[in-house]
Amino acid sequence: MDLSPLQKMRLKYRPKIPDLLRDLAAVSLKAQPMAKNLSPAIQRLFPKTFSQTPFVLTQGNAGKARALKVGVVFSGGQAAGGHNVIGGLYDALMKIDPKSELIGFLDGPSGIIQNKKRTLSGEEIAFYRNQGGFDLIGSGRTKIEKPEDFQAALKNAGDFDGLVIIGGDDSNTNAALLAEYFLEHGSRTRVVGVPKTIDGDLRSEDIEISFGFDSACKTYSELIGNIERDALSAKKYYHCIKLMGRSASHIALECALQTRPNLTLIGEEGKTMAQIVDEIADLVKRRKAAGKEYGVILIPEGLVEFMPEIKKLIQELSKGGELSSESAAVFADLPEKVQKQLQLERDPHGNVQVSLIETELILIEKVKKKLEGKFNAVQHFLGYEGRSCLPSNFDASYCYALGLFTALCIRDGLTGVISSIQKLKGAIEQWHLKAVPIVDLIHFEIRKGKEKPVIQKSLVDINGKAFLYFSRLRKSWEVEDRYISPGPIQFFGEAELTDSVPITLE
Ligand code: FBP
Q1: Angle (nearest 5°) at CA 354 between 487 and 226
Q2: Distance of CA 367 to the CA centre of its chain
């Protein structure tokens, strides 16, 4: 791949780092004892790791270090900043002991199962610093699931000091299961997860945000702002923009706050399809009465699984057999291509492939019918274009610090934990670093008809600060055009422009 002048300049960017990560030999991880109340089922599944406490990074001599052999894998969808996690890992390992080795497993978890790997050199990594994508080692969605997958992982990575899994909720569930398996089989390999996903749904009290969310939302907001300006200029279309973000509507909420479209649907509000169609039709009528036959509507891709009519239909379709009379009626009334999209295979983790379902088309067709054709809509999907952009300064620094910290978790012998950085909206120098036991985030869910342990997805909290702030403002954006066009991610200039954090984090 050749680099543009901007990409070349970004290679030289030095991410800011928290004060605690300046001298790695002068800090160490300290246990933070806490009362735990995990279900017996979790305790049975994770007998070796369920009692793990969180650890926080504090000043204090780390003791004698030795060379470490560490594997790293990208798992799942791309998210800007991943290469900086690898850069941070590599730099920390070299500081711990220059004889350390960082090994990249290729093309996702299948690389661990099939033993496809290569040692990463400093020169090679230098070419990927502050760049988007995961192409240094590739990514994939294979799930380490079958007994033979775990055996292969033990064979191929069981003599390492650490294995770093950079992934979302499903991949970090895998990290917890692998950590347990390695311990059970006497392996010294520590498994540490890194919270990645543009979806922003890997959140908890301890994980403020996953990396990639900021850059993706900034990229989408730039494009939404451009579309708003176009709508305001031409005054002839309703732009219906589906936004990536499986299940949770965090991306739609963040982009709405950044761009102020006329309507943003939030799946977690739990509206039915009929209610949503009425809401859009009513908006169109009210704007027409104000002389406006254009507008911008944001639709989260996960909405399709929140609308009860479609949710039920998807469930019945995936069970096979005959549809109930209600579902059959809903199905018959959908555009033919959406009917096919609803029947696509699930991904290896059992998720409905919502990015391939044209939810915006379902709504456009229904609103058109209701308004007797008087809805001049243009369909958009903003998805993959936000996952591999040049990372924002926030994601570049966040990811670099995650990489440095993850190396320390391995150096200090932690396993079955996920790296977490806290106080992210404050000064980077003051960020807190914590290793959170993954088992604490796990619960049971039905996937592909079976009960499975998974990290609970964090949805938009409709009683939370961010949503309440949005819901106070949104009425005033409906008929009046209060659009904001934030422009592209900025890398040079005032800190206010270059170093902003997501609004929903604030
Ligand atoms: P992760 O959960 O792996 O980070 O992926 C998230 C995501 O980008 C979703 O927003 C989207 O629905 C899905 O991946 C698309 O999957 P694929 O890349 O397999 O088409």
Answers
A1: 15
A2: 31
Picking from 52, 46, 59, the residue whose alpha carbon sits closest to that of residue 31 is 52
Give the integer Cα–Cα distance in Å for 83 and 99: 21
Residue pair 216/392 in contact by the 8 Å Cβ criterion: no
pTM of the predicted model, to two decimals?
Answer: 0.96
Q: What positions carry a catalytic annotation?
A: 199
Domains present along the chain, CATH in parentheses: 5-212+391-447 (3.40.50.450), 217-386+461-485 (3.40.50.460)
Q: What is the pLDDT of residue 405?
A: 98
CB 239 within 8 A of CB 227: yes
Residue 141 CA to residue 106 CA, distance in Å, equals 12
The token duo for 138 is 């590739």
- Tell me the pairing of strands 417-422 and 432-437: antiparallel
| ∠ Cα 192 441 211 (to 5°) | 60
CA distances from 481 to 227, 242, 290, 472 (A): 13, 20, 11, 16
Which residue has the CA at smallest separation from atom 7 of ligand 1?
A: 77
**CA–CA gap between residue 307 and residue 313 (Å, rounded):** 10
- Report the 3 state secondary structure along 470-491: HHHHCHHHHCCCCCCCCCCCCC
Ligand 1 pocket test, candidate residues 174, 197, 209, most atoms within 8 A of CB:
197
Instruction: Express each pLDDT in 201-250 by its tens digit.
Output: 999 999 999 999 999 999 999 999 999 999 999 999 999 999 999 999 99
Write the burial class of residue 321 (CB in 10 Å: 0-12 exposed, 13-18 middle, 19+ buried).
exposed
Q: Which pLDDT value is given to residue 63?
A: 77
Per-residue pLDDT tens over the stretch 360-406:
999 999 999 999 999 999 999 999 999 999 999 999 999 999 999 99
Q: Could you read off the pLDDT of 127-141 as tens digits, one per residue?
A: 999 999 999 999 999
**Local structure of residue 16 (DSSP, 8 states):** -
Counts of helices then strands in the chain (DSSP H, E): 18, 16
E strand or H helix at 360, and its extent? Answer: helix 359-370
In the reported structure, the alpha carbon of residue 77 is separated from the centroid of ligand 1 by a whole-number distance in angstroms of 5
Which atom of ligand 1 lies closest to the CA of 169?
A: 2
Largest CA distance in the chain: 75
How far does residue 11's CA lie from ligand 1's centre (Å)? Answer: 27
- Residue 411 clears pLDDT 80, i.e. is over it: yes
User: Is 28's pLDDT higher than 90?
Assistant: yes
Distance (Å, rounded) from C-alpha 109 to C-alpha 76? 9
Q: Tell me the C-alpha distance between 200 and 254, whole Å.
A: 10
Q: Which atom of ligand 1 is nearest to the CA of 171?
A: 3
Query: What are the start-end ranges of the E strands in 92-161?
Result: 101-105, 117-119, 139-140
CB of 294 closer than 8 Å to CB of 238: yes
